[in-house]
Amino acid sequence: DTEVTQTPKHLVMGMTNKKSLKCEQHMGHRAMYWYKQKAKKPPELMFVYSYEKLSINESVPSRFSPECPNSSLLNLHLHALQPEDSALYLCASSPQGIDYGYTFGSGTRLTVV
Amino acid sequence: GQSLEQPSEVTAVEGAIVQINCTYQTSGFYGLSWYQQHDGGAPTFLSYNALDGLEETGRFSSFLSRSDSYGYLLLQELQMKDSASYFCAVRGRGANNLFFGTGTRLTVIP
């Protein structure tokens, strides 16, 4: 299995809702990432998990809460989002300590209304 | 911090060769990678250069000059399916921290 699977593919949520994005990989990668991508912009790093521990938080607002239950799963819990949080949320994985060859999922297209 | 600049748009004819440039500024350099992203799709890893010179992978080649803080992606025998966005990327602060360039939108025309 050489894929990163993200669910759901599309999500519409109200500003008072709580939702979760899910990401799964079975490549044995021990580093997993959440990126946010706005239209016509590059992916922006949000969080990095290394060996299931949060190693980087790029000053992301607390309404985004990551979780790594095990080495194959990564979640992003969403609460009280704003319309400007609407974006494509990408999950990626890589071997630990490697800065290239990331494998990305196809993303969750999030719309906050 | 990191800064990677790319041309925003490039248009080329099917069958031709196109070069996408990337100039970077980074506090510590470990290598330059390239990713392709089709509309609505996942970024896909294309190539990586840690040392100066040209790396060839099929129709795609990537070049790096560390002294010039510059690299490029070369696409040969362009096909319509090559129409996509292309991003260069470098390591950010610390390991496992990939920072992307501004991106180049390539349009291949018949």
Explained architecture:
- The complex is a heterodimer of chains A (113) and B (110).
- Chain A is mainly beta.
- Chain A contains no helices and 11 strands.
- In chain A, strands 2, 4, 5, 6, 9, 10 and 11 form a 7-stranded mixed β-sheet that branches. In chain A, strands 1-3-8-7 form a 4-stranded antiparallel β-sheet, with no helix packed on it.
- In chain A, a hairpin with a 2-residue loop joins β7 (64-70) and β8 (73-79).
- Chain A is globular.
- In chain A, 36% of the residues are buried.
- Chain B is globular.
- Chain B is mostly beta strands and 110 residues long.
- Chain B is 0% helix and 58% strand.
- In chain B, strands 2, 4, 5, 9, 10 and 11 form a 6-stranded mixed β-sheet that branches. A 5-stranded antiparallel β-sheet of chain B has the order 1-3-8-7-6, with no helix packed on it.
- The chains are: A mainly beta (113), B mainly beta (110).
- Chain A binds chain B through residues 4, 31, 33, 40-45, 48, 50, 55-56, 90, 92, 94, 96-107, 109, and chain B through 30-31, 33, 35, 40-45, 48, 87, 89-92, 94-103, 105.
